[in-house]
């Protein structure tokens, strides 16, 4: 990824916690109180245009080429069903280069979906359903209804009020950290209520029906999202459930059932499965090496030539702003900031940025050391959250005269040592190691008579959970088996 992008990576990582079950954190901008279906106003169009580039930048940039063109076509055709505009080209649809399962739309006709979420889908109707759901939020002017209750509750550069619940939990540590670390971009990402999510699902189903798609696609894509979330948590050693406080959205099972009921027992229409699979064949899946990749417990960035590992019990999320690190005993991020060549000054400035505008935060002392031949400086600040004290650590490394990276971590008092293995694991990688980092991509294959779920799953470019990943990726629930002659997705390494 471009060097400047690493400082923006943390945003998508947290949104993923909501997106995996909610068709995105559903980013919104302030809207009006006009009734659903009212055409886009000039003010809304200007509003969407104002924030478009910032949204694209936060989510890794826009994908270009035939795959993106296809997504744009489907998105414009479903969006026009909303009555917000009379022609498809009134909507600007963007395929985002992000490994986060996310989709959102903002007033003004701007619609977004990540390539990761598109890769999880299994037919064109599902793609149209997801985009229709997000357009439904805009058509219903949900953002205006939520504007008064929205809060810019940002943590370590994270957007939105979802942060303290999803990332840190509703704990004393989480509340203190959320109050303390309020830096980052000033865009507000608002979450929706349960009733608004249900209304958007209903509008999305209606749009599918009027466009000639099978409206049951809304329930199948929601089911895939729920199963992917459960699998992610299983692979990370977490409970495959979403706590009530972590989301205002309906729980996955009831939402899938509700969407199925909305479609009705006589649901029918176009799925366009084969066309969809042929159009997304070759789409990048998981992390883009240009943005760094997560492999097991390690993060590797071939462009910046760095790697580090997190301890067992901790997980990482690779977002558009930073790499987030989450565990039961602390949370943190890897990021970068402007560097003038003085690590002491760099660390002090990071602490100050964590305090936010008008705040003050400084380390008790600065310690100099060397980590795997990298000059390093670190410091700790003890902060009273109001509920309990927490330790904030900034640990920075100099990679060149103009480039530094740092961890910023939060842990209960005296517990910062849990991150020592991670701090000490940071190192440069060789050119040969960097060259070995290649992207994963979706490959569409046709099942032969001798193929089975197990035989195709063995071709998946993962060292764990191959069968489970294959089933979720292809919407194969229960004990469903392959149909000879039918196409399926596998994830392989690019040559």
From TrEMBL:
All residue ranges annotated as the LysM domain in the record: 443-490
Keywords: Hydrolase, Metal-binding, Metalloprotease, Protease, Signal, Zinc
UniProt keyword annotation of Membrane present: no
One of the record's GO molecular function terms: metal ion binding
CDD domains: LysM
Protein's UniProt name: Peptidase M48 Ste24p
Superkingdom: Bacteria
């Amino acid at each position: 990824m471009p060097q400047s992008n690493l400082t923006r990576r943390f945003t998508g990582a947290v949104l993923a916690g909501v997106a995996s079950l909610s068709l995105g954190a559903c980013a919104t901008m302030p809207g009006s109180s006009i009734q659903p279906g009212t055409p886009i106003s000039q003010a809304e169009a200007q509003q969407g245009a104002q924030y478009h580039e910032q949204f694209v930048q936060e989510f890794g940039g826009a994908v270009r080429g035939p795959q993106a063109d296809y997504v744009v076509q489907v998105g414009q055709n479903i969006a026009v069903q909303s009555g917000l505009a009379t022609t498809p080209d009134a909507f600007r649809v963007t395929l985002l280069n992000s490994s986060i399962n996310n989709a959102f739309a903002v007033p003004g006709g701007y619609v977004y979906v990540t390539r990761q979420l598109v890769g999880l889908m299994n037919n064109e109707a599902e793609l149209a359903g997801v985009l229709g759901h997000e357009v439904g939020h805009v058509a219903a002017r949900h953002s205006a209804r939520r504007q008064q209750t929205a809060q810019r509750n940002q943590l370590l550069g994270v957007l939105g009020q979802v942060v303290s619940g999803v990332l840190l939990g509703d704990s004393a540590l989480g509340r203190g950290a959320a109050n303390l670390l309020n830096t980052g971009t000033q865009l507000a990402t608002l979450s929706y209520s349960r009733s608004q999510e249900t209304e958007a699902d209903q509008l999305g189903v209606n749009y599918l029906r009027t466009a000639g798609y099978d409206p049951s696609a809304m329930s199948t894509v929601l089911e895939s999202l729920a199963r992917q979330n459960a699998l992610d948590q299983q692979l990370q050693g977490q409970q495959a459930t979403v706590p009530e406080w972590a989301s205002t959205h309906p729980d996955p099972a009831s939402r899938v059932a509700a969407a199925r009921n909305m479609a009705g027992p006589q649901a029918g229409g176009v799925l366009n499965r084969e066309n969809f699979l042929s159009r997304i064949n070759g789409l990048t899946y998981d992390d883009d090496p240009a943005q760094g990749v997560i492999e097991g417990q390690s993060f590797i960035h071939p462009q910046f030539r760095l790697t580090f590992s997190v301890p067992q019990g901790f997980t990482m999320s690779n977002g558009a702003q930073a790499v987030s690190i989450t565990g039961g005993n602390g949370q943190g991020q890897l990021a970068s900031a402007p560097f003038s060549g003085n690590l002491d000054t760099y660390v002090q400035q990071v602490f100050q940025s964590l305090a936010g505008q008008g705040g003050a935060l400084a380390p008790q002392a600065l310690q100099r050391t060397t980590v795997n031949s990298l000059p390093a400086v670190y410091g700790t600040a003890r902060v009273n959250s109001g509920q309990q004290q927490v330790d904030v650590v900034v640990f920075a490394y100099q990679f060149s005269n103009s480039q530094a990276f740092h961890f910023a971590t939060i842990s209960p008092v005296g517990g910062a040592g849990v991150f020592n293995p991670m701090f000490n694991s940071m190192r440069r990688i060789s050119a040969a190691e960097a060259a070995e980092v290649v992207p994963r991509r979706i490959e569409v294959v046709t099942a032969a008579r001798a193929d089975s779920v197990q035989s195709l799953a063995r071709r998946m470019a993962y060292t764990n959970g191959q069968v489970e990943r294959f089933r979720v990726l292809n919407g194969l629930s229960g004990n469903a088996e392959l149909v000879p002659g039918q196409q399926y997705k596998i994830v392989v390494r690019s040559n």
